[in-house]
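Consider this pair:
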Amino acid sequence: MKIDAPKIPEDLKARRFTDIFFLEDPEFEMCMVTDSEFVDEVLDRMRLYKTVIRNCNFTNTDFSRIDLTDVCFENCDLSNANLSNASMNRVEFLNCKLLGSNLTDSYIGNAIFRESILNMGLFGNSKLEKVIFDNTELESADLFDCKLKKVEFLSCNLNGVNFDETSLKGIDISTSYFDFLTVSMKNLKGCIVSSSQAIQFASLLGLKIK
């Protein structure tokens, strides 16, 4: 699936993330932020546009209602960060850690999570449109009552993921792996699975395969 990549110019202004406290509005545009520590902070309604964030630590930080457009996160730690009610468009998370991060009630479009850790991540009540999870850990993540449109899971760990009240119609999980999932048979209808996964789901239904 082709998604729209972030539109980021080459000429970016170097910033430290703490510079945000000295700006009139909590907004970075056309910036390169590297090697910043921004832990246990609270920053409501922050806006990032056409920006690269590299090698930064944002653990336990409250970024609720953050607005991200044309942004690339590389080698960042956002574990236990609050990204709820976020708006994300043309965003990349590359080799990032989002362990237990909260992305509930958000819109995520034209986004890619590649070689990242989202174990126990919370996506409940979010809309994901044109999103790729590539070689990413999603163990015990919660995707309760999500709207998934053109979402791909490529070689991901989906063990223990909660898809309750989330339709997987047209969603391809065939290259990913899991021991168990939480999903209803109604919402599993139309999901694209491998032959071995079909056997797994049959066993969950109590069917005996000869």
